[in-house]
Amino acid sequence: MTDATTDLATGPITTNDGRPLKEALAASLAVRRRRAFLLVAPLFLFILISFIIPIGQMLGKSIYNDGFSSHAPALAAWFDAHPAGSAIDESAYVALRDDLVAMKKDKTAGEAGTRINYDISGTRSLFTAAARGAEKMQPPYMDAFLKLDKKWGDPNVWRAMRSASSPFTMDFYLAANDLKRNEDGKIVSVGEGQAVYKKLMLRTLVLSLEITAICLLIGFPIAHLLATLPMRKAMLLMIFVLLPFWTSLLVRTTAWMVLLQQQGVLNDLMVWLGIIGDDGRVQMIYNQMGTIIAMTHILLPFTILPLYSVMKTIPPSYVRAARSLGATSWTAFRRVYVPQTLPGVGAGGLLVFILAMGYYITPALVGGADGQMISNLIAFHMQKSLNWSLAAALAAQLLAVVLIFFWIYDRLVGIDKMKLG
Amino acid sequence: MALPVYATPLEKLWHYTYLGICALIFLFLIAPVIIVIPLSFNAEPYFTFTEKMMTLDPSGYSLRWYDSLITFGMQNPDAPRDAAFWWDFWQNATWVQVTKHSVIIGVFATLISAGLGTIAALGLTRPEMPWRKPIMAVLISPMIVPIIISATGMFFFYSMKWMPMLTEDGIGFGRLAGTYAGIILAHAALGIPFVIITVTATLSGFDQSLVRAAASLGANPRTAFFRVQMPLIMPGVVSGGLFAFTTSFDEVVAVLFIAANDQQTIPRQMWNGIREQISPAILAVATLLVIISVALLTVVELLRRRSERLRGMSPT
């Protein structure tokens, strides 16, 4: 003790080789930090390259589409020189004709037309037809184009071309929110009949919420039972939870198709029991009900397991103490037991909600028309309509919602506390 | 969960109601998995129990759907069942081909994700690891990001020519889409969160003083790792790997987007079957897959118990 104080008095504590202790410790910590990081680095790079960058690049497509701009340089130049609102004069039609002639040569009129078609449906043929006739056109081109098709005088088409002449655009986010620009460039909502995306996003949220609620409602008693039974019995019953968990998603979805069909096992059983008549068979699949039942079954283990691991840690003596102080069993359960399970409810509920939002396979197979979720629409635009930019915009919005809930999950539960089985 | 002796009649009634509710939920959980098994032996092309099945009449049951699995896609399905028939089966039967693809993809994807994942988990559980939370969030993200978004992202990225590989005109840049390497990399990425979660959970229960004890007894870091730490965390690594393998074995969306037409896997073939014309043959496949999952579950449970015993956590 006295030695140390004299050392402190004479100067900073040093290591054997004379370096200040603080510095030496910091250096050794830096080495250990670097070592830990180097262990993680290969996997981090792998995920970055094979997962994060691909998604980032895909999301980029939602604001970048050069389908029109790369094939219409003359029009782009005209739009640059003439700000929005200026009259569409002969010089614009000259630029249009130049671009169409070039498109005809490169066979890109279809691609350029498709881009405009995303904004105003039915305009793709306008471009392919005009490209065919562009070479033979005689000036004045304005009249020539209008003679070919009146739509070439439509300010809306010109507005769409102006917007598409820059590869960077917010048009797809507008479309993904059921919005569009009118002739004056103002943002207005699309007609009642065409508004689908907001409704579907809302339905995805509502369905996920319903599924989460059902999962918590029926997962809670199961987790409670498993946590309070003697170990041996609980382990045996745990198989009922873990076996579905390990069974292929497609197998479980198929099984529900078999069970819920109109000519399926459940309807047969109900007819046999006399609950319903043979002509009153219930349609339980290929609609929202099918999606909810199958997804609840698939996601239920994700609620039960976190709930179970929290309930395991709750000492039974608390409830007993409450009872001994005069609480009824219901009060003891509500005021003493349930509050202690909240971390598990939060963990299980949030995880199920996050996973449910992104479900694709099950709704696609058993959802019918009104059981589809936003993922199914993204797949539709990817594979069928081939409007990849709109698919990317929808994906970006879905991802944003999912990431917000992932962030909440991290705040409330902590991602390093995530457990499986 | 026994009733206390002081329970009122109402509480007793509620207790048995509660047990009844639990039984119904367990039925809900297990019934779909079990129901496909007897139905796959249906002699009729229906998805329900026929009268003959209910009366346990042997003629109500048959192996015809399993037979159709065997012969589907074969060149000579009606040939006598000799060596040549089984060779044809091995070479041409559709379900054998898709199983081979699934196993190859699954094994390599698992090796990548379990290998890289375990090394990363070792770093992540060190107390001095910098930026642990954000890095963990990135590594877990393949599980959180909706699969349709991951698959479309990979589709675009793998459709570009950036991967150095052997192409038709020598070594050059090629696309990963339509190659086994592409699917394997995609599935490895999707399996990583499961490895990370399982192995970090095992490592956080690992007693670091064991490594220090080994060091104090003269083991160098390498020996301490391979002789002391590795055997103790191995059960966690294997069950993480099994998680990753099932993820790949069950994955259909990425395969739909990335794989070429001749690279069907079991789930993709099932997907086709369900979308087009669902026949009880699908139930035969489902039954086989249920048997596989029972086997996997058994292995994982045994490993978990072994791990608990090794760490001295189990009361038995």
TrEMBL record, chain A:
<keyword id="KW-1003">Cell membrane</keyword>
<dbReference type="GO" id="GO:0055085">
    <property type="term" value="P:transmembrane transport"/>
</dbReference>
<keyword id="KW-1133">Transmembrane helix</keyword>
<protein>
    <submittedName>
        <fullName>Putative spermidine/putrescine transport system permease protein</fullName>
    </submittedName>
</protein>
<dbReference type="InterPro" id="IPR035906">
    <property type="entry name" value="MetI-like_sf"/>
</dbReference>
<dbReference type="InterPro" id="IPR000515">
    <property type="entry name" value="MetI-like"/>
</dbReference>
<comment type="similarity">
    <text>Belongs to the binding-protein-dependent transport system permease family. CysTW subfamily.</text>
</comment>
<feature type="transmembrane region" description="Helical">
    <location>
        <begin position="344"/>
        <end position="366"/>
    </location>
</feature>
<feature type="domain" description="ABC transmembrane type-1">
    <location>
        <begin position="201"/>
        <end position="409"/>
    </location>
</feature>
<feature type="transmembrane region" description="Helical">
    <location>
        <begin position="386"/>
        <end position="409"/>
    </location>
</feature>
<keyword id="KW-0812">Transmembrane</keyword>
<feature type="transmembrane region" description="Helical">
    <location>
        <begin position="205"/>
        <end position="227"/>
    </location>
</feature>
<keyword id="KW-0813">Transport</keyword>
<feature type="transmembrane region" description="Helical">
    <location>
        <begin position="289"/>
        <end position="310"/>
    </location>
</feature>
<dbReference type="Pfam" id="PF00528">
    <property type="entry name" value="BPD_transp_1"/>
</dbReference>
<keyword id="KW-0472">Membrane</keyword>
<feature type="transmembrane region" description="Helical">
    <location>
        <begin position="234"/>
        <end position="259"/>
    </location>
</feature>
<dbReference type="GO" id="GO:0005886">
    <property type="term" value="C:plasma membrane"/>
</dbReference>
<feature type="transmembrane region" description="Helical">
    <location>
        <begin position="36"/>
        <end position="56"/>
    </location>
</feature>
Automatic annotation (TrEMBL), chain B:
<dbReference type="GO" id="GO:0055085">
    <property type="term" value="P:transmembrane transport"/>
</dbReference>
<keyword id="KW-1133">Transmembrane helix</keyword>
<feature type="transmembrane region" description="Helical">
    <location>
        <begin position="280"/>
        <end position="303"/>
    </location>
</feature>
<feature type="transmembrane region" description="Helical">
    <location>
        <begin position="103"/>
        <end position="124"/>
    </location>
</feature>
<dbReference type="Pfam" id="PF00528">
    <property type="entry name" value="BPD_transp_1"/>
</dbReference>
<feature type="transmembrane region" description="Helical">
    <location>
        <begin position="232"/>
        <end position="260"/>
    </location>
</feature>
<keyword id="KW-1003">Cell membrane</keyword>
<dbReference type="GO" id="GO:0005886">
    <property type="term" value="C:plasma membrane"/>
</dbReference>
<protein>
    <submittedName>
        <fullName>Putative spermidine/putrescine transport system permease protein</fullName>
    </submittedName>
</protein>
<keyword id="KW-0813">Transport</keyword>
<feature type="transmembrane region" description="Helical">
    <location>
        <begin position="136"/>
        <end position="160"/>
    </location>
</feature>
<feature type="domain" description="ABC transmembrane type-1">
    <location>
        <begin position="99"/>
        <end position="300"/>
    </location>
</feature>
<feature type="transmembrane region" description="Helical">
    <location>
        <begin position="16"/>
        <end position="41"/>
    </location>
</feature>
<keyword id="KW-0472">Membrane</keyword>
<keyword id="KW-0997">Cell inner membrane</keyword>
<dbReference type="InterPro" id="IPR000515">
    <property type="entry name" value="MetI-like"/>
</dbReference>
<feature type="transmembrane region" description="Helical">
    <location>
        <begin position="180"/>
        <end position="203"/>
    </location>
</feature>
<comment type="similarity">
    <text>Belongs to the binding-protein-dependent transport system permease family.</text>
</comment>
<keyword id="KW-0812">Transmembrane</keyword>
<dbReference type="InterPro" id="IPR035906">
    <property type="entry name" value="MetI-like_sf"/>
</dbReference>
